[in-house]
Every structure is written in C-alpha cells, then in structure tokens.
Amino acid sequence: MKPNPKFQNLPKHFWADVKLISQEVGYTIKKTKTEDSKVKITTVTEIREKYNNLGLTVEHIASPTNEPTEYGQNLLDYFSYRADVLNNKVQYHLMDKDGAKSLFEKLHNELNPKCPIPMNKQKGDKQTFMYLTGIVNMLIEANIGESACDYDPRSLTTITKNSIPLRTLSRRVDGAFPSTVNPIAIWEIKEYYSTTTFGSRVADGVYETLLDGLELEELYNSEGRKILHYLIVDNYLTWWVQGRSYLCRMIDMLNMGYVDQVMFGNEVVDEIPELAKSWLDVK
Questions:
Q1: N or C: where does the chain have the smaller number of CB atoms within 10 Å of the terminal CB?
Q2: How far apart are CA 137 and CA 81, in angstroms?
Q3: Strand partners, 231
C-alpha cells in the first residue's frame, strides 16, 4: 500500500490531531451480535466531547453547530480513508501461518532460490522457515538478477559523503539493496505467525520502524539524500484480531512520510517484483 496523495505533506499539527483523536475516541468498534469488529470512522460530535473533556478547543475543526472547517473536513476524510483501507483491503491481505506456508512453498518450488532463507528462533517442532522473510527474499532475488543485495544485514545502515560517514542509523534493518552502505532501499519485516498474544515486543516493532523513518526524514531534510524505506507485516491474528490500532498507526506513518510503502501479507506478491525492478534503475 502506498500513501494517499491527498494526505501527504500535511503539517505536523494535523497528525497531532489524528493521533490524539484516535487515542481519545478509539481506533475500533468492538464486535457485536450483528457486526464484526472493525476500524471506526470518527465524528465531529465525538471529537468535540473528548476535546472538551481535555480542555481543548475544537474551533479549528468545527463550528459551534458542528459544521466542519476545511481543516476539520480533511481530518474526517482521513479517518474515513483509514477505516476504508483497513476494513475493506488490508484485513483480506493478511495471512495466517498455514496461508503463509502454502505461499512460501509454492514460490520455493517455482523459483528454486539461492538467497538465504532464515529459520525462526523457536525450538523443536515449532522451528521452521520464516515464511514472510523467505517470500520477500525469493521475490527480490527473482527480480534483480545478479545484482547484489544484503538479505540479512549484520551491521547498521551507513550513509557516506566523499567516503566519510554522514549518518549511521540506530538500528539494524532486515534487508538492504544493494548493501547497508549507501543503500537505495531498506526494509523491515514483522511476521508473528507463532505469536498468540499481542505483547510489547510486537508493539515495539511498529515504533522501531517509526524511529528509522524519523532518522531518514532528518537525513533527507538536512542532506537531500533519499533512502527508500519499506515496512512488511503479516499474521491475521496478531494485526487484525489483536492489533488493529497498530494497523491504524502504520497507515498514519505511511501518510506522514516515515515509510514509502507498507505491504500487508500476500500483497508482497504483486508489489515486491515491481519495486525490486525499480531499484535497478536508481543511479
């Protein structure tokens, strides 16, 4: 999924409202007897009530009769857009463990890969391939030919100028093209097929990507150096059933410009080949 052009390059205070309203009003509507759980669309009435409770004004959002200002309408449009893409698109791309395994095996048989495919960190019967990482690695390899790619970075990402380090990112990423030194693209993969609860480790995965995005934003604003940045996530139980609020935050990060694209589950099959080919054209 790519950002919506309507919501790109908006001021930081727009996203301050988005995040605060999301926290106070809530991200989701709980499941009822007649309707499944889903991401909610926020109303002016809800915003007014919560902001009044916090001692905050809503003058920039709506008139006393709840008529949205231009700014307020943009907020409402964003909440509607976010709910639509998550309720009607993203949830249907997310796979469970069996679906990921089936796709992994299909691609493995078709592509006969030579790229590294890591194993998960579990023991005994639960140890298996990291399916999403394997899928991503195989698709990249199949579309970059003999070009170099670091599928398993063991070092921090460094950007140089005149052979002198200009910036070094704080975290290791999950992949870099062509390498972690002056990469064209870097990516993070968050797959949690064996996770049964939504814990702090899963939540931290989202904030780690945000940190990378903030550092890359500073690099671009200060030095004019653009590094493509992708987030790739999967597991229906983790993200849709237990973590829909974090999916909302991913859509927020995407439109704030902290990632260039977020890929959910089997969306990688269509998106990765085109992205990988495009990297070859970057000089």
A1: C
A2: 31
A3: 188, 262
CA angle 95, 228, 249 (to 5 degrees): 50
Q: How much is the pLDDT for 32?
A: 60
Q: State residue 199's pLDDT score.
A: 81
How many C-alpha atoms does 112 have within 13 Å on its Cβ side?
0
Name which of 105, 113, 149, 153 is nearest 129 in CA terms.
105
| Beta carbons within 8 Å of 16's beta carbon, 6+ residues apart | none
**What are phi and psi for residue 61, nearest 5 degrees?**
-105, -40
Q: How many residues does the chain have?
A: 283
Instruction: Identify residue 183 by its one-letter amino acid code.
Output: P
Q: Which residue has the tokens 């899963």?
A: 202
- Collect all residues with Cβ–Cβ distance below 8 Å to 206 and sequence separation of at least 6: 190, 246, 249, 250, 253
